[in-house]
TrEMBL record:
<keyword id="KW-0547">Nucleotide-binding</keyword>
<feature type="region of interest" description="Disordered">
    <location>
        <begin position="1"/>
        <end position="20"/>
    </location>
</feature>
<protein>
    <submittedName>
        <fullName>CpsD/CapB family tyrosine-protein kinase</fullName>
    </submittedName>
</protein>
<keyword id="KW-0418">Kinase</keyword>
<keyword id="KW-0808">Transferase</keyword>
<dbReference type="InterPro" id="IPR005702">
    <property type="entry name" value="Wzc-like_C"/>
</dbReference>
<dbReference type="GO" id="GO:0016301">
    <property type="term" value="F:kinase activity"/>
</dbReference>
<keyword id="KW-0067">ATP-binding</keyword>
<dbReference type="InterPro" id="IPR050445">
    <property type="entry name" value="Bact_polysacc_biosynth/exp"/>
</dbReference>
<dbReference type="InterPro" id="IPR027417">
    <property type="entry name" value="P-loop_NTPase"/>
</dbReference>
């Protein structure tokens, strides 16, 4: 089912013209070292992310949505791992944005080994005039990345500013805008995610099997309303049929 839906979704989504930013080629070996597998079509560890990509695209198409944050109840559930690999898998078939909005613990710049290329989304949120985005190229695919420059303690105050609305308006500005994956903070630590939620079209929830308490999950889902949860990723699963420990996805 997903493969058919996926190709239909792709056909309906025209390519977005490249514009702005600094284009750089990512180091494949560094990506694999940092747990970013899904740029590689032939890597079996990428397969669950291709499945997730197809299901998400179908889901977004049905809702005419494009901006999705990857979050979890508590820290360290694997949000960045999922956001990076999902964005990588999406960018193999469709122009994609990856935006790091976990201002306290940003990792996108480090895991993609972007160095100091381009200024950060945090600089934009603090008043810098342009987004200064970096477009990363691996093979033939195109991934636009907005990394963070410096971990920020006052992240909630930064995210609560008018600049956040401007950021999301810019991400949605093109009539044929790419799908946008946000590497987001956890729900139950600070209020950063609550501040971001109204700007989102949907949320992808990362759940750690056997580790995410049900009460935390319930509380998270309650707090998120009315922002829709467009799917759930079961990470570090103990199911024997998931050999790489992630990728179980079920739309809600
Ligand atoms: N299924 C997995 N298989 C292998 N490594 C994983 C998996 N899930 C997460 N990791 C690794 O676990 C570590 C923590 O994951 P990650 O940084 O994605 O969590 P996070 O939820 O983004 O944390 P934070 O709340 O700090 O932002 C990383 O080194 C990541 O590569
Ligand atoms: Mg993270």
């Amino acid at each position: 089912m997903t493969a058919i839906l996926s190709s239909r979704a792709q056909m309906r989504r025209p390519a977005v013209p490249e514009e702005g930013g600094t284009t750089m080629t990512l180091d494949r070996a560094a990506l694999l070292r940092n747990g970013v597998f899904a740029f590689e079509r032939a890597d079996p560890r990428a397969a669950p992310f291709a499945m997730l990509r197809s299901q998400l695209l179908h889901r977004l198409d049905a809702r005419k949505a494009r901006v999705v944050a990857v979050t979890s109840a508590r820290p360290r559930a694997g949000k960045s791992f999922v956001a990076l690999n999902l964005a990588a898998a999406l960018s193999r078939i469709y122009p994609t944005w990856l935006v790091d909005l976990d201002l306290r613990r940003p990792v996108v710049r480090e895991r993609l080994e972007l160095g100091d290329v381009a200024s950060g989304v945090d600089a934009f949120l603090l008043g810098a005039p342009g987004l200064g985005e970096v477009r990363c190229v691996v093979g033939e695919q195109h991934l636009g990345v907005l990394p963070v420059d410096t971990p920020r303690e006052g992240s909630a105050e930064i995210l609560a500013s008018d600049r956040t609305a401007q950021l999301f308006a810019s991400l949605r500005a093109h009539p044929q805008s790419p799908v946008c994956i946000i590497d987001a903070p956890p729900m139950l630590e600070g209020d950063d995610m609550m501040i971001l939620a109204p700007h989102l079209d949907g949320v992808l929830m990362v759940v750690e099997e056997g580790r995410t308490p049900q009460a935390d999950l319930r509380e998270t889902l309650r707090m998120l309303r009315p922002t829709p949860v467009v799917g759930t990723v079961l990470n570090r699963t103990i199911l024997p049929q998931q050999p790489f420990g992630y990728g179980e996805y079920y739309p809600r």
